[in-house]
UniProtKB/TrEMBL annotation:
It comes from Hyphomicrobium nitrativorans NL23. Residues 43-111 form the SAF domain. SMART domains: SAF (SM00858). This is Flp pilus assembly protein CpaB. It holds the Pfam family RcpC.
Amino acid sequence: MKRPQLIGVTVAATAGLLAFFMVSAMVNKPPVEKTVEVKVESNDVLVARTDIGLGQITNDSLFRWQSWPKETVTTGFITREDRPDAMTQLSGSIARAPMMAGEPITEQKLVRAGQGGVLAAILPAGMRAISTRIKEETAVGNLILPNDRVDVILIRRVRGRSGGEDYVSDLLFGNVRVLAIGQQIETKEGRKTADGSAATATLELTARQAELLALANSMGEISLTLRSIADLDLEAGPMAGTDPSTRESTAVRVLRYGTPSRAYGVN
């Protein structure tokens, strides 16, 4: 091959290699990322700045405004647009239920100052709060805590047919909620037992049940039996939410010196 031809072939090969590398670089070039800003309409919603406990009295420092997408703001949320002075207005209110940090504040979760005390705030509509005496041996060794569910049993003495005294038990109510033990209305984090010195348990009952419990307190000794957490559904089980005024007595027979005694119910 003549020299001019050799030079031409070399130049062509070099140009071809150069073109190949340039095309490869263009093909393998990483795509350019483009950032597109999408503007979402939002509202400032009043939320809890820190965790707020049941019955806690609130103040300005427990609230803050947080931006929320406008389409997720539901009825009941308090917005800065509608109530710019909400922090000041709600200061001094009582928390009707525990709230976590960042949780939206609603009027239903708070009771304004002057509208009632802590217990009245957490008591459901139509229900009554009534206390009964307890001690360690009648309250599951002080292991019953607020919001547990219990059965209420009355132990009393009656005169038997023979003229002697017998002890009988009556199941007054089943599956009722404990509102407070002593003055403790909320289970503190890490606490495993209630106040051991507490002498009363406050229960959530209907008006008729509260009347019967007041009568039972004067008739004998009240014992509370703790229910399983699986029984929290008020509609579960034959004794759930039972009012003894609408059923037959559940008094049981007891043995006295090996002889069955007569059992009486609560009238």
